[in-house]
Amino acid sequence: MPLSRRHALALATGAVAALTVPARAGARPAPAPTVAPVGPGFLWGVASAGFQCEGSAPDSNWRRYVDATPSYDRYGDAVDFFHRYRDDVGLAAGLGAGVYRISVEWARVQPRPGEWDEAGFAFYDAVIDAITAAGMRPMLTLDHWVYPGWAAERGGWAHPAMVTDWLAHARKVVDRYASRDPLWVTFNEPAAYLLNETTNGGLPAAAVPVMQQALVRAHNDIYDHIHAAQPGALVTSNLAYIAGTAEPVVNGPMIDAIAARLDYVGIDYYYGFSPQSIAQLSPDAMKQLWTLPLQPEGIYYALDHYARRFPGTPLYIVENGMPTRDGEPRADGYTRADDLRDTVYWIQRALADGIPVLGYNYWSITDNYEWGSYTPRFGLYTVDVRTDPTLTRRPTDAVAAYRDIIAARGVPADYRPTRAPATCSLVDAPDSCTDPVTVP
Ligand code: IFM
User: Fold this and answer.
1) Is the CB of 319 under 6 A from ligand 1?
2) pLDDT tens string 414-430
């Protein structure tokens, strides 16, 4: 069960939530009969990550995890973004998106210690050129869980030189791309990164606090470097929103330690749980992401949580989406288009209640390698990696939905979510029981 695993990880780190989230002042506002569009400056985007989509992958920790794990799908060339980035950037531009999130893969630009690969950088130069030429702003992730094979060889984040070496790489990336005015993400989902390194990378439990401290040091250091290179930059480390009382335990230790160096709070919101749905989860749920329950209104609770934790700091949904199993209809009948529209409705509701939401990225523009498997499909465009050698991008119903949403700056004023808010969502327990969000 996901929560207990993540709880266990937090406990392994000896983590205690240092800061509590202030209680809501008064009852939740009653909803207006109609929902207003988002402002013209709202950032609509799509998100991706290097290893998951690029292919042509150099030696890295993740290449090694795949090689060492026969039950994982062979990586192949993922969806070959390495050769098809122009097409995928064009698909995002065709939606009207204004932000395209990628990660710059350390393994590609520094294949050996002290050796920088100009061809690797040239690839990212070309991708960023394509993004900006299409009228979009890049969002650059410095570390989406992948580092070079040579760093894996010596023990990854448990090695004393890791922070120094990571910073040498990250500074090069920042110095090269700061003039392109990207939005920055330092570490993708740091709590999940710790878990990933424990389960796939063999990071011993005793080294988890070492890695966590290393991530904190690296984030805080590169934050200052980014601001020196790009005055006014917007920097975050995005958090995988967990739920209610688990949130401060799982994400609290990292976010508290970097709180002074966050220009916006990047939030990844996917699943929502109620007491009933959590009781029904199968033990394999984390390997079958398409069975995890979806609660679109949970994005409102997540935003509300972080608006109270960081008053006045802009919030950005850096990732949101829904998995299917190999692109098949979901067992709960929820379509990608309905889930997207319902989710955007709740973002508009959050904005209407004064929560400062800066932007929203859909995860992902195409299906990709979901950390060991091609079965969970998150793409606006689906790609049958295992069966279609042409890797054709085929639109899901959410392509038209997202295009309409972006053009209209949200769902229509009289929109009503297709899915009613859950009773007693654990995404915001216990407030969701005593003061739940409602639809007019
Ligand atoms: O694919 C992942 C991504 O790498 C991190 N956030 C969640 C996504 C979907 O599981």
Assistant:
1) yes
2) 999 999 999 888 888 78
